[in-house]
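dumping this here before i forget
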Amino acid sequence: MIVFPAIDLKGGQVVRLAEGDMDRATVYGDDPAQQAVAFAQAGAQHLHVVDLDGAFAGESRNREAVEAIVEEFPGYVQLGGGIRTPEAVEGWFNLGVARIVIGSAALKNPQFVKDMAREFEGGIVVAVDARDGMVATEGWAEVSNVTVVDMARRFEDAGVASLLFTDIGRDGLLKGVNIEATVDLARRVDIPVIASGGVKGLDDIHVLTLHTNDGIEGVITGRALYDGRLDLAAALAMASR
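structure:
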């Protein structure tokens, strides 16, 4: 199972939000590239980066920081946040990003995602962000009337690499991953699922590893790492068992 340490960008700084609320941001550093290097030194081979400002604006807002991260991190960078055009997708791949995460556009323009998944095989991840079981978009500011499973099933056989499932109500709150909902989604679709939202410690990593056969591909963790509640090296070791 892959452990993705997270770097969320707001105004060029490394932050974590509570429940996706931009007004509830905790700043953890002002050098995103150095944070990426620190995660690499702990053994991380994958990184999850989100341009939070871009998610709300619908276009890149932290480009310089992302470019610095890609340049410094020796592994695979997965990037999301406001990527909604073919030109943006192609541009980031050309700069060395390994996978692109598409959320809002996946709900509003699913054909765009399918086209990108065909053009960039294995490079597109669909973000399925849920608030009370319904898909949220626009940086989680809007909640749709589409269920998580219905959204995910739209992309079966479309060639997307993974689904990134986030329980917004747990994100950044250290409440623990919503294991039940995450595993239920993985069992009901044929696309690998990455868990996100609420990781609080090694127990979450351990339980998720028990469900790799159900389709759990990985887990994203942020605040638990920054607050020192989760040791990245230990999490990586557990995930590799």
